[in-house]
Write a structure and sequence with these properties.
CATH architecture of the largest domain: Orthogonal Bundle
Distance between the termini: 72 Å
Number of domains: 2
Number of helices: 13
CATH superfamily of the largest domain: Cytochrome c-like domain
Strand content: under 5%
Strand order of the largest sheet: 1-2
Order of helices and strands: HHEEHHHHHHHEHEHHH
Number of strands: 4
Shape: globular
């Protein structure tokens, strides 16, 4: 009898194992099917991110080809607090960097509902505990009237920012009248794509300087010489070249070690059954891929989904009001009424690193966003119903479907090793991404 029981148990175990394998094979087959339908030309390869060292495969501006020398320089400058030399107050000097609002552990976002560069204090809680330095008045802070977007996977963004205002090509052709001189938008006249234009403009907007004497003092001159040997020395040390180096580095920030990327490379056990079911819905029935497509699961499309603006997010925010032009999205830049309330489709990788979602940080979990999209009802009364995107419609997903899509977004699209893109130190020797007194204590440096 004992032997018979063992045989029965073994039979049940084998049957369960076979059934489970069949289910996994069915999921893999269905996922491959929807991927091929989502990209009929490239199939699943159309969603693969290149390796960060494979420069020839990374989308880039022909006017700023990626080189190892530029990436090396840009990686340091992006994190360098030593170039923050033109602050509003003396105590702000050397305390912030590009990475203050776009650092690795926050998925290259700010880690809080509103990023604070100059005038901020602390970084505890992965950026969440960064507050206003008490010597800065609210109007003096370096903040934006909208949630800081990620710099991860920006190689797939021809235009930058939520309204796409930076970049001389693509949909910005015809907007030249808005490129006002003596404004950040004047950088568009240089003719570069969005990543480069934003990096160049951002150095000035955020009161960072690049000049030969400073660069030499900090130890960067030889790196500029190596990265821009084909530039005449009179033009080699400038915000333009620094921005080009930072942009080259930013283009290598790719979430190519996420489980979904490993799955696309052939590792079928990289995703759980729930994540596979979520992916099947994402690329299939839920049709999320209509806007979130390509390797970065983003696009250069702009849509109005009726999400709240930053001044409505519930926390204390600075330098934004109900009438802020930023709340008009694309229309705030183009001045075209047909573009009002439309915001650029973001990349979906590593969203779990920074728990604020939507251009106004009105959602606090990925599941909340999925539920909102499923419901198809706008939360922002400022957005007229006739301005809403035709893609913002009730999806009719079940709670189980929502759980599966959330699992795909939270886990399958999460690269756990983004610190590989961060330098061990910058040449000034200062703390980064911030170097104010509280941040230095939080980071346990200096």
């Amino acid at each position: 009898m004992k032997n018979l029981n063992i045989i029965v148990l073994l039979s049940i175990a084998l049957c369960y194992s076979a059934c489970t394998a069949d289910k996994d094979e069915n999921l893999d087959s269905e996922l491959l099917k929807v991927l091929n339908e989502a990209d009929p030309v490239n199939g699943k390869e159309g969603f693969l991110l290149p390796k960060s060292f494979d420069y020839s495969s990374i989308p880039q501006d022909p006017a700023n080809p990626i080189t190892a020398e530029k990436v090396t320089l840009g990686r340091l400058l992006y994190h360098e607090t030593g170039i923050a030399v033109d602050p509003m107050h003396p105590e702000g000097e050397g305390t912030y960097s590009c990475a203050s609002c776009h650092f690795a552990s926050a998925g290259f976002q700010a880690g809080r509902f509103q990023g604070i560069g100059e005038g901020g204090s602390g970084i505890g809680g992965n950026g969440l505990d960064r507050l206003r330095l008490d010597t800065y008045q609210p109007e003096e802070l370096d903040v934006q009237p909208i949630r800081s977007p990620t710099t991860l996977n920006v190689a797939y963004q021809e235009l930058m920012l939520w309204n796409g205002q930076f970049g001389a090509g693509g949909d910005n052709v015809g907007t030249e009248e808005e490129w006002v001189y003596d404004s950040p938008l004047a950088a568009n006249h240089l003719g570069y794509q969005g990543v480069e234009t934003q990096a160049i403009a951002g150095l000035k907007v955020h009161r960072m300087d690049i000049e030969e004497a400073l660069i030499a003092d900090l130890g960067y001159k030889s790196l500029f010489d190596a990265a821009f040997a084909d530039w005449v020395s009179a033009d080699r040390y400038s915000r333009e070249t620094a921005g080009l180096a930072i942009a080259a580095y930013e283009r290598t920030l790719l979430a190519n070690r996420a489980p979904f990327q490993r799955y696309l490379e052939g590792k079928e056990n990289a995703l759980s059954p729930a994540e596979k079911r979520g992916a099947i819905l994402f690329f299939g029935e839920a049709n999320c891929v209509n806007c979130h497509n390509g390797p970065a699961l983003s696009s250069m499309s702009f849509h109005a989904f009726g999400m709240k603006d930053l001044d409505q997010c519930g926390e204390e925010v600075f330098k934004t009001t109900p009438n802020d032009a930023a709340h008009l999205g694309r229309g705030g830049f183009t001045k075209r009424a047909s573009d009002n309330y439309m915001f650029k489709t973001p990349s979906l990788y590593n969203m779990a690193d920074s728990p604020f979602y939507g251009h106004g940080a009105s959602f606090r979990s990925i599941r909340e966003v999925v539920e909102y999209k499923n419901g198809g009802t706008a939360e922002n009364s400022r957005v007229p119903s006739n301005a809403l995107s035709p893609y913002f419609q009730p999806l009719g997903l079940s709670q189980g479907d929502i759980e599966d899509i959330t699992a795909f977004l939270e886990n399958a699209l999460y690269d756990p090793e983004l610190h590989r893109y961060q330098p061990e130190m910058v040449l000034s020797g200062q703390c980064f991404p911030n170097n104010d007194t509280q941040s230095s204590a939080d980071l346990n440096c200096n």
